[in-house]
Specification:
The chain is 51% helix and 10% strand. With 235 residues, it is of the alpha/beta class. It folds into 2 domains: 86 residues, Methionine synthase domain (Methyltransferase, Methionine Synthase (B12-binding Domains), Chain A, domain 1, Orthogonal Bundle); 131 residues, 3-Layer(aba) Sandwich (Rossmann fold), CATH 3.40.50. Strands 2-1-3-4-5 form a 5-stranded parallel sheet, with helices on both faces. Helix 1 runs antiparallel to helix 2.
Length: 235
């Protein structure tokens, strides 16, 4: 796959570079994603502008193409891989901005689910907003979630699922939290393509995120850091 071509004098604009970055993610061009991200960082473009107007929209477009049947799983995974090249550039820079953590978040993809695209986006957004994030990875059992919450004294437990067949493990995890006596000490947040507000409410979750970009504000809402009249399960 061809790398990015040099910009002409009239093309060196932030908006154009962000457009190229989105396109590179969709086209699964890892080298171009890395080069563009590094170039914009060097030019002191705001890190979250690169993330929110370049990398994330590119991944969302790839996901939408997958939903429409224009992409298949290999293409979606390759776009995810390209995205990670950009995230790997931004992550250490965003982490450098952190001061005292606003709170601790334990996060993971539920048991038997190996998808981590949305989870990884949520992590970098939360870290950039001042939260300490403990990433348990994928295929996480209810027991492992509960142990991590207890060990780290987390205020938020965030769970992701991309498969309808694994959604029930969110319910099992919340039930295990209840049985352990930790449910009153931690807020639970769920999200993922098949997850709905109704499902979240039915399993006893405290909050629901339709998109990764809404996670920071939702976490702040659940912790009482932001006032919002909207039901946390309807965001």
């Amino acid at each position: 796959m061809n790398s990015i071509r040099p910009f002409s004098k009239n093309e060196i604009t932030i908006d154009y570079q962000l457009h190229q970055l989105r396109r590179a993610v969709v086209q699964r061009d890892c080298k171009a994603v890395k080069e563009l991200t590094e170039r914009m960082v060097k030019e002191e473009v705001d890190l979250f502008k690169i993330l929110n107007q370049g990398l994330i929209p590119g991944m969302l477009e790839a996901s939408e193409r997958f939903r429409k049947g224009e992409f298949f799983i290999p293409e979606l995974l390759m776009s995810s891989r390209a995205l990670k090249f950009g995230l790997n550039v931004l992550r250490p820079l965003i982490q450098e901005r952190k001061s005292a953590a606003l709170g601790k978040v334990v996060i993971g993809t539920v048991k038997f689910d190996l998808h981590d695209i949305g989870k990884n986006l949520v992590i970098i957004l939360l870290e950039g907003n001042g939260f300490e994030v403990i990433d348990l990875g994928v295929d996480v059992s209810p027991e492992k979630f509960v142990r991590a919450v207890e060990k780290n004294e987390a205020q938020i437990l965030a769970m992701s699922s991309l498969l309808t067949s694994t959604m029930s493990w969110m319910k099992f995890t919340i039930e295990r939290l209840q049985a352990s006596g930790l449910k009153k000490k931690v807020k639970t947040l769920v999200g993922g393509a098949p997850v709905t507000p109704i499902f979240a409410k039915n399993i006893g979750a405290d909050g629901y995120c339709r998109e990764a970009t809404s996670a920071p504000s939702m976490v702040k809402k659940l912790l009482g850091m932001e006032e919002d009249e909207k039901d946390p399960l309807l965001r």
